[in-house]
Amino acid sequence: MTEKIIEVNSLCKTFKIHKRATGFKGAVKDIFHPAYERKKAVDNVTFSINEGEMVGFIGPNGAGKSTTVKMLSGILYPDSGDIKVAGYIPYKQRKEYVANIGVVFGQKSQISWDLSPLDSYEVIRHIYRIPPKKYKENLERYTELLDMGSFINQPVRQLSLGQRMRADIAAALLHSPRIVFFDEPTIGIDVVGKDKIRKFIKTLNQTDNITMIFTTHDMQDIEKTCERLIIIDDGKKLYDGSLENVKKGYRSSRIIEAEFESLPVSLTLPHAVISNADNNELKKLISFNTDEVSVNELMTALMNTHNIKDLSIREPEIDAIIRDIYEGRIVMN
Amino acid sequence: MTRYLSFAAIKFRSKMAYRFDYVLGTLHTLLLFVVYWSIYKALYGGASEVDGVTFSMVTTSFIISLGLSSAFEKNEMFLQDKIKQGTIANELLKPVNFKLRILFEDMGEGSFNVVFNFLPTAVIASFFAELQAPCSVLHIPLCLVSVILGYIVLWEISFIVQSWSFTLFSVWGLITIKNVIINILAGAYIPMWFMPDWLRNAIRWTPFDSIYFTPVQIYLGELDGSEIAFHFARQIFWIAVLWAVGEYFWRSGIKKLVVQGG
Predict the structure, then answer these.
(1) Nearby residues of A75 by Cβ (< 8 Å), 6 or more positions away
(2) ipTM score of complex
(3) A9, A24, A222, B242 — which has fewest CB within 10 A?
């Protein structure tokens, strides 16, 4: 049994949001009587992560995953609940703690806009007091793995987004952290770039046993890198378990996409859920489980009662599964 | 500590890259000095002293206080911008004391400006204006120490006002007002000697005169040994008090920090 490196217990965080009134009258009223609204960004979240694990945090925009990561990395103070990472309480022992972690924000570059990545790394070397030998080793290794040789001396403002992201990832890893948080690292990056980043992250997790937490809403990111998945929506934890398990629950689930000749009336089928597809009234999605009803049975029932123009059967995609979980169509435990 | 000194050194070196910038900086300080020098030259109207204050004392006071205030100008929107854009998150991820790091970086920039902006201005001014030599060779290092301590006092006042951006989000107006108040009360615009007694007595209870006026007094030899020690102690006292106040605002600020965007 490997050691637990991250322990989070009933974590909560509420933000006060200033509700701005519209129009001139509203703006005047706002000055004297501002209205606030409280929003629970993280609501009673509990989980633990073992050393060397690679965990994907997913959830729609505003679900609270970035807020959770910011609390885990010691930037934000939680309202209540306990966090313990690598033996530290992040928000209390911030200065000592952050030497053990690396954070990559997809939306906020950590390296200086005016300097080249190499110059920024020099500053990082001083900040983290990285021994010269280790610094040189890490730098050479990441330059090669992330293929940065061609742009390491160029000012950051001249780099493409993909290049900058790779430079940012290297910056977060130079001090050999034990835990790395990736907050939407592939946002806005093309397919080839995404793939390079995913491969690098996976390699590093396997060879260096670095614990990694990965937030994203790109399911491909998760499928290609993580084994464990934590799904968060509306501040609450909806699912915590293996990616395999999510898929397994859907292994025998199928969807029939059927286009009817005329508007279907009284369409009811045994053990199947019918929903509309793409605004086309003639098109319906029929979801069912092959354990409960066979394809044959269902097709016969369908063909006997309606005239079908076109038809296809497919497995649900991971995106769709997650969407089902978000929208509460299924409850995972 | 060596780590923080290296922050100052890095900043000092990176300032070197903008050569055009410091030529203009020198010009700015020189112009500022010439304006005040001419006004007071007219006010003196050829008299050698007014109220026991010689014209060369006034010119020297101006070169020190105006020159330093211009050399110590820095980006005071730093914290506000970081909070607004959410990049404060990156600062909090570094395993260093944020305040100390910024102080040292700013001292790196400040000492660069002293060497490449203040000193050239003083040298050029010495050709046309009536400047006094330091009271003795020993007074040069003493003056330097009081300049550094004075800088820290100035920096801390700025940090306190900046740290209000955690709650106010926009502190530009406050910073502008603060700078005017400091420049008046610290004697950069009107030498302390010409202030009414009640004001001078009031200022004595504030940190403002320890910013520029203490170095001026030491340079001119207005203070004897024990008085110099007392003024150093006073500067250190204000540094300690203001540090604690700044720490309080900083700590309560990051507690309610909302990292905006993403």
Answers:
(1) B89, B92, B93, B257, B259
(2) 0.73
(3) A24
Geometric angle at alpha carbon A40, from A108 and A329, rounded to 5°: 95
Contact B94 A96 (CB under 8 A): no
- Tell me whether residues A129 and B261 touch, CB distance under 8 A: no
Tokens of A131: 């021994």
Residue B35 forms contact with A (CB below 8 Å): no
Q: Do B10 and A127 touch (CB under 8 A)?
A: no
Q: Which residues does chain A have within 8 Å of residue B93's beta carbon, measured at their own beta carbons?
A: 73-75, 98, 101, 103, 110
Q: Could you give the residue ranges of the DSSP H alpha helices within B114-171? A: 119-128, 139-163, 165-168
User: Domain-by-domain residue ranges, chain B?
Assistant: 2-256
Q: Is the pLDDT of residue A331 over 70?
A: no
- As given in the structure block, the two tokens for residue B73 are 């100008």
Higher pLDDT, B216 or A65: B216
C-alpha to C-alpha distance for A132 and A329, rounded to whole angstroms: 54
Cβ pair A105:B90 closer than 8 A: yes
Centroid of chain to Cα A156: 26
Residue listed under structure tokens 């990111």: A221
pLDDT of residue B262 exceeding 50, the answer is: no
Q: In this complex, which of A66, A76, A108 lies closest to B87 when CB atoms are compared?
A: A108
Q: How far apart are CA A67 and CA A232, in angstroms?
A: 11
Using the predicted structure, report yes or no on whether residue A333 has a pLDDT greater than 60.
no
Least confident of A29-43, B133-147, B154-168: A29-43
Residues composing chain B: 262
Burial class (CB in 10 A: 0-12, 13-18, 19+), B200: middle
* Mean of per-residue pLDDT scores for chain A: 85
Q: Cα(first)–Cα(last) distance of chain A, in Å? A: 23
Mean pLDDT, range B209-232, rounded to an integer: 93
Contact A76 B7 (CB under 8 A): no
Give the DSSP letter string of A37-73: EEEEEEEEEEEEEETT-EEEEE-STTSSHHHHHHHHT
Q: Which residues of A touch B6 (CB under 8 A)?
A: 126
Q: Are B66 and B36 in contact (CB under 8 A)?
A: yes
